[in-house]
Specification:
With 214 residues, this protein is α+β, with helices and mostly antiparallel strands. It has helices at 49-55, 64-71, 77-81, 103-109, 176-187, 190-211, and strands spanning 17-20, 27-36, 39-43, 60-62, 84-90, 95-101, 112-116, 123-127, 133-138, 150-154, 162-164, 170-171.
């Protein structure tokens, strides 16, 4: 069920769709995103609660007990509640990947949180015990735009904290033959369409037969 914004109207919530289990009737919201292979916004954190809370803890936060207490705070409720389904694309390589960020693992494996200088505003970066990047909280004051606030990660640097629904990268390079077929179909007659459709149907039958499908 689509629950996002209508045309030219801002969304009241971050989620775009609501998924309903027809058997159990359980419901959960999902935010759909399409980003290039690199930085990925997981939450806008419109009220800037995460950054403000971290600012009170210092610039170099360590210790599982202290970090767990921070992540259990209501300021980080979005960290646990938002479901994001991003389609990551690499335009140069013409490939894409649908990946899900593992929030639970990120929370469980955060060993340190360090304040770093960003391009314009500071960020708090989360690291595991091997000092490997997990995600980051960006400054979210009144002077910031969407790229400068909220909870972010990086699809390359934090790859180990993603699960791929597509089993890795999928090629979407152009099928030039199909493009030519469609372009010719637009200017050909109905007789040509009928003959082409007959050939395509025969080809589909052959493909099904070779694959063992009925």
């Amino acid at each position: 069920m689509h629950v996002g914004k209508d045309l030219y109207r801002a969304k009241s919530k971050e989620e775009d769709i609501k998924i309903i289990n027809e058997t159990t009737k359980a419901e959960f919201p999902v935010s759909l995103k399409a980003y290039g292979d690199g930085p990925l916004q997981l939450s806008t954190d419109k009220s800037c609660r995460m950054f403000k809370h971290l600012s009170k803890q210092g610039d170099d936060i360590k210790g599982r007990g202290k970090i767990q207490k921070i992540l259990d705070d209501p300021a980080f409720s979005e960290f646990r509640e938002i479901n994001v389904l991003p389609l990551i694309y690499n335009e140069k390589g013409q490939r894409c990947n649908i990946m899900v960020f593992d929030y639970r693992r990120a929370i469980d494996e955060t060993f340190s949180i360090k304040k770093k200088k960003g391009r314009k505003h500071p960020v708090y970066r989360f690291y595991n015990k091997n000092d490997e990047y997990i995600c980051e909280v960006r400054y979210g004051g009144g002077t910031t735009n969407a790229l400068q606030r909220g909870l972010w990660t990086h699809t390359k640097n934090g790859l180990q904290y993603f699960d791929s629904i597509t089993g890795g990268w999928i090629d979407y390079s152009h099928n030039q033959t199909l493009v030519k077929l469609l372009s010719h179909a637009l200017v050909s007659s109905e007789i040509g369409h009928t003959e082409a459709l007959s050939t395509i149907k025969d080809d589909i039958k052959l493909l099904k037969k070779n694959s063992g499908m009925n």
